[in-house]
Amino acid sequence: MNDTFMKEKPVFPLILSMALPMVISMLVNSLYNIVDSFFVAQISENAMTALSLVYPIQNFANAIAIGFGIGISAQIAICLGAGNKETASKAATHGLALSALHGVLLTIGCILVMPGFLVLFTSDADVIDLGIRYSTIVFLFATINTTNLSYEKIFQGVGKMKVTMIGLMVGCVSNIILDPLLIFGIGPFPAMGIEGAAIATGLGQVFNLVFYLIVYKIQPLQVRLSRKYLHPDKALIARLYSVGIPGALNLALPSVLVSALNGLLAAYSQSYVVILGIYYKLQTFLYLPASGIVQGMRPVIGYNYGAGEHKRVKKIYYVTLCMSGVIMLVGTIICLTVPGQLMGMFTTNPETIAAGKTALRIICAGFLVSSVSVTACGALEGLGRGTASLVVSLCRYLIIILPAAFILSRILGAVGVWHAFWIAEALTAGVAFFISQKVIGV
Prior knowledge:
Keywords: Antiport, Cell membrane, Ion transport, Membrane, Transmembrane, Transmembrane helix, Transport. It is a multi-pass membrane protein. The chain crosses the membrane at residues 12-32, 60-83, 95-120, 132-151, 163-186, 192-215, 236-253, 316-339, 359-380, 387-409, 415-435. It is a single chain. It contains 17 helices and no strands. The protein has helices at residues 5-8, 11-41, 45-81, 85-119, 125-140, 142-157, 161-184, 194-218, 234-266, 270-306, 310-337, 339-344, 350-363, 367-382, 386-399, 401-412, 415-439. It is globular and about 60 Å long.
């Protein structure tokens, strides 16, 4: 494949070819999370509780690594589109070095903060002990993880989506294989319990990184990583963080939203908290393919923007929007026609299922229009406009939905929280369209 395929190949098959590996990667990662939790649950209920309590900090660390990685990918794609391989290589090298530094800081910070964080949520000494033992090992691999994710975004920035798909599968599959071996002590391996789960996670990241290093060595990329590019470039570093910081916040905002909504819903009944949790499990499978399409679109739109192909940039935006819209339409139809069956996958309580059916039918009214904000956020990040993307996400996850949920819950009860979803999606779509029109001219 030639170096200019991102501005020469027809848009729809190009985005499809870039997005499909990302969709598969995300599905594999979701499967890994389920299997990993299953094995940990076999240790004890306390071990599973500890894993759940550590997860928010793990998620925060990943958000920093992935968000900054999006900044690296965007700068690489834009520079390559402009024909400036030297600056693209400099962006990749700076990004890799800074990602490693982030990993060191995360290792120190997360290990230090974890004991105090755990006692905020439990007084069980065994759970706290398990959480500290697990998290200490996991965060010792933080530098490996941030470097690994940096390589992932470098490969994505040059359009090597299949490489990143295989890399993620190498990490996930090796982790799944190692989990039972190290947790329960199968064959020559000692039984290490929750420490074994943490080591398996870390080794999965090591294998993933080794895979990227091998591919980088045997398959030359359009960008090169070299010490000669390490001379500090303040303007370039600023551009990396201008997308990386908003990107990290974008990934962290859904967790903030769920915590806030749980606080509102718990005042009415614990079953509504359960329903919200079930909804987020269900919507993950709906938004996974949409997110995969957006990930595939990012380097394409950035490359064409850098190349000055503004008409093609608009076409890429609209094709991605239509693809996301089709997925959201299918999700809407499913939630309207079989909401009871969907809820029944996670609970047998008839009252929860009945209330859940109402929730899904109300919330899904915002699915189709949400494709505008999802596409706009990805496009803006791909163009290096991280702050504009953050504005859209803030409207979607905080500024509009939380006040709406608070006010409507006082009027309609818990059902008002469900109505806040589609209202927020509709209003945010208007904001996203306005910003996209200013930046892209759509």
